[in-house]
Amino acid sequence: QLQLVESGGGLVQPGGSLRLSCSTSGYTLSHFTIHWLRQAPGKEREGISCINEDDDTTYYRDSVKGRFTISRDDVKDTVYLQMNALKPEDTAVYYCAASPNFGCNYYYTKYIPATTTYNMQGWGEGTLVAVSS
Hints:
This protein is mainly β. It has one helix and ten strands. It has one helix spanning 104-107, and strands at residues 4-7, 10-12, 18-24, 34-39, 46-51, 58-60, 68-73, 78-83, 92-98, 127-131. The protein has a six-stranded mixed beta sheet. The protein has a four-stranded antiparallel beta sheet with strand order 1-3-8-7, with no helix packed on it. The longest helix has 4 residues, at 104-107. The model has no long low-confidence stretch (mean pLDDT 95).
C-alpha cells in the first residue's frame, strides 16, 4: 500500500523559506501525479500544488502562486515544495498525496473545489509549518 512521508516543516519567521520533501518506499514517485495539500487549524484540507506524472506540468492555487514551487527529483525519488516569502496564513500541517487515476488538470479547474481529495492516496502524518515572528 502506498504510504507517503512528508518532512521539512518547522517554525519560520514571516518572509522566510522552507523546503518540504515527500518520499516513499516500495514505490516510484515518478509514476504518480503528486499533490501538496495543507490544513490550517479549524479549516478543511486543501490542495495547493500539483505535479503531473507524465510531463511534470505543475499547478498552483492563487494563494501560493509565485511563492511556492513544486518539483521532483527522479534520482532521489522525492517531490519537493519550495516555499518562499512565507506568511502567517501559510501556517498549517502540510501533506503530500498521490492521485493514481487523475492528473492535476482534474483538480485545478474552477469546477472542482480545492478541498477535493477524491482518488488521493498515500496519506502520511504531515509536517507542520508555523510562520510567526
